[in-house]
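User: Show me an example of a complex going from sequences to structure tokens.

Assistant: Sure. Here are the input components:
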Amino acid sequence: MLYIKNILSFILVLPLIGAIVLSFIPASNKSLLRSIALNCSCLTFVLSLFLWVFFNKSVGTFQFAENFFWIPILNLNFSIGVDGISLFFILLTTLLIPICLLASWDSIQVDLKKYLIAFLVMEFFLIGVFCVLDLLFFYIFFESVLIPMFLIIGIWGSRERKIRAAYFFFLYTLLGSVLMLLSILYIYYQVGTTDYEVLLTFSFSPLEQKIMWFAFFASFATKVPMVPVHLWLPEAHVEAPTAGSVILAGVLLKLGTYGFIRFSFPLFPEACFYFAPFVYAMSVVGIVYTSFTAIRQSDFKRIIAYTSVAHMNLVMVGLFSFNVIGLEGAILQSLSHGFVASALFLIIGVVYDRHHTRMVKYYGGLVHTMPIYVFIFLFFTMSNIGLPGTGSFVGEFLILTGSFKANTTVTFLSATGMIIGGCYSLWLFNRIAYGNLKTQYFKNYLDINKREFLIFFPLLLGTLVMGIYPNIFLNSIHFSTNMLVEFMYF
Amino acid sequence: MRIETLLFKEVVILPELFLGISLVYLVLHCTFLSIKKNYPLIQNSILYLGVLVLFLSCFLVLNDGLEVLEQSVLNDTIVNDYVSFSSKLVIGSLSLFCLLMIQPYITSQKINQFEYILLILFAVLGLFLLCSSNDLLTAYLAIELQSLAFYVLASFKRNSTYSVDAGIKYFILGAFSSSLFLFGSSLLYGVTGTINFEEFKDLFVNVFPGSYDTISTEISLFDFSLVQFGLVFILISLLFKLAIAPFHTWAPDVYEGSPSASTFFFAVVPKLAIFVLLLRIFYYSFFGFFESWRYFIVVIVVLSIIVGSFGGLEQRKLKSLLVYSSISHMGYALIAFSAGTLESIQMLLCYLIVYSFSGLCVWSIFILTRLKNNHLQKQNKDLTDLVLLGKSNYMLAIFFTTVLFSVAGFPPMIGFLVKISVFLTAVESSMFFVVLISILCSVIGTFYYIRLIKILYFEKVLVGKLYYPIQAQSSVLISFLFFLFLFLFINPTLLYLFSYKISLLVSMSI
């Protein structure tokens, strides 16, 4: 295969090409618009599978690497590459985008063209974040994601509160990340380049590390989100359209953890060790607090939103255990959360499309009328709790094992989050699926159709595979994490 | 004065001469034509004549630049080097765009006097001379030429109270700041006996930043504190012209009251020329006194960015919003100005060029969207007037969004790149707190740009103000600017090399 070494840049620009093609098609021809967008994103997914197939699992270095000149006189260049850490995030992105497009097949009717273009442009930015090997370009892609997401929440959101939610989302994230920009500028001033592989050879003084770690932390913690700055997430989730929530929970939250693994860990290892107790404390507070908060919510989406905060904080605990088990668990849990949370938001989307409400109290006894739907809901509720046999179990198990080595108290406290997680998930499932049908609210019920089943099927399969035989994922992750941990300790 | 320089043998100020002579010709032509033909409407034809004249003088500038050597003429009062060449080129092209963009506006607003176009051309002549001036008096005269044209442009709508009010405010404060400039120059002349930038540089060649205190005791040829005093006066007067906080208070009123075409012109075009003069005085001639005015500038930077970011939050009119945006942007430009390195000049020029072009885009959109069913012909648009633009003119709204994100300094736009370049120079000279404050204020500033985007897209209203469609000629220009924006981010090397070459000349004394 001669062209396989250029496949990454092709995957990167393919959604952009799709967006440009879409912009030339008249907005009235909706079916053509939809099919072009879907085909383009599916093609991207298939190509990214090739990335996995041709990925060399026995090395931990960057593969499919390419370099492009951008501003040579300032020594700023554009380089991309994939290693075991970023590979599955790219695959997750490319998988979720066609699912999102399918999920909004019927529900989005106004401004369809802009919607599809926004999604494809966002796919471009997200793939860019995960494959770029230059700190400045990482920042550029990391921030650019805000623009399409801001528009998606603001234009296609459901209620009047959406504008507030869009502002929340935009300004919180921006305020966090300008501090990161400042320290990127400092790094560029110190090292003279922002190329990732060159930066790895440079070590900063402890004070510099602490300050810059904190600046990076401000940005990534807002994205994860950690507790004091998590307020934008429930707002944004509740107001966003279903597909927007899916991308938000599935991929955007992972930008934070990915940023920690990729940049904070190897660039500021000493500061990472120094601040680990701080992160533990914040994560544990986040896990317990948001789990309890999730119990008392009345909005279906808000419950799942708080659940994702809890799970992402668990990922943070895994990351800061600084050993291979914890790191691999964190990456696997990120992936499985990408599957499960997305599926749960899609499940909400199914009933929201039919009844246009997300209040839990209006639903009840769906098992009588929508059995397939309830089966899928049950499956994903169980994987949300972390039932053995699903990907979340493997992830959580590895995270807790890893953190047990590092700090037993933290492991104990974060494990309580799983118990509370059982409470809210099962109670939610109970309220929605069992009991009597609330026919005083809804008269007509309809089980999921073929399209919706097709949406859930790959997520279901992926979660199962990840739970039953996680090694096909861990194989590729292993060498990169190993290298990272060795790099941090030595 | 050497006579032969005035002959065509080696005329180095050919563009200015051409512009001046054709302006005189245009004045005579218009006057006689008007009287003979009983005052016909010659606005459009004069506008295209003006465009032709400007285009030709831009061409002459370009022609000059092919063999740019540093030449000074007229007893060293005017210099022609790469700085003046490139800034004249940028200013010329900006004014060309301006003239073409305001054509629908002056037709619809019935600004029928031909003097309007001529005044704009006079202002351009002043700016050209300002770019190439090499002594304080020439600079003063050039500033006066462009300012006097601007005063008249501001008060051009004689039947509107606001316009006359704006003109008088602009005139009084502008004259005041010019007199400060003169006062500073006379101080400098009194101390040193010269007004030439080149000679200033030679005089203070032994003065290095931070060292003038020790030298002054040894040599004591000049009273250095008087020199610093004069410099501060000149600085304040030029900052007045740039409308930088705390000298900005005239700007919102004047911009709001003047006819939009005039505001367009003096919001976009003159900033670069004044910065070139600032660079010539403070970097080329008086770099030895860098430390003495640096902290002054740093305070002004912080003030200006804070005023610009917070002041814009409560604005309901697009014009006032743009004024505050320009105040904060001038603050960012001054960050680079206060850094005092070779790169800082380069980034400053990059920033100014990109800022001018994005200002051009924003103001063009503002001027081209003419309200339908508007009996009063009011142009002072509220922000909420734009509510239907996203639906009625979809492409224009997208262009507006792109430009707004660029002005807000948001990736992936060229505005982001130049902004971080400016911050980079500040980091390089260890001004961390200034950068921290300005970077946090820029987040607050972003809020009012994304409020505009919210108004464009997020409101689900069906009733609102409608706009006339945009003429083909303006659409071509707008799309050209759009692609320029996209291209500049994909390949910004051109911009950086261009400004690098300029900065090399200015920074000879660093």
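The lines above are the inputs; the final block is the predicted structure for all two components together. Residues 3-509 of chain B form one domain.
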